[in-house]
Amino acid sequence: MRLFHFSDDAAIEVFVPRPVQIPSERGPGRAWLNGPLVWAIEEARQAMYLFPRDCPRILLWATPETTQADRERWFGASAASTIAYIEWDWLERVRTGAIHRYEFAAEGFECLQDAGMWVARTAQTPVAGETIDDILGGLRAAGVELRLTDSLAPLRGVWDTSLHASGIRLRNAKDWTR
After folding, report:
1. Position 27 pLDDT exceeds 80
2. With contact defined as beta carbons under 8 Å apart, do 6 and 101 qualify?
3. Which residues make Cβ contacts (< 8 Å) with residue 31, sequence separation at least 6?
């Protein structure tokens, strides 16, 4: 199992658990996820973080429960395993930006059973690190089709489909309200 953390900072030697900057509703018994943790993503879902940190995005992928109708509506003829939507205003930053990927040993992390996310309650030292300066190439290599839109707000309905939808940094999206 390969676990990664993505950052704008290229010089992190040790990841110290810290609370999330903006707490969110986590559901019954899961408020601890807003507390001090080190977050990581498994390799299969790392494309969710192949973006500049504050870039609002929605990523979709099929699950075993996904209906053919939802797949056709949202993926069309695309052979991509994942569709990522961003707003046009972010394209230049994605095209020219870089992101730093840190790799962790899996020991010390626990799986959240949620979109490939893992957490550690103790400090973690990366076993490797690299700079990804071709974000678009990284997305393509990960099987992601990037789609551009003026606003992510009209995509709210995707959470009512049989697809998996992950929204990240949506507070930075145009016209997005909770």
Report:
1. no
2. yes
3. none
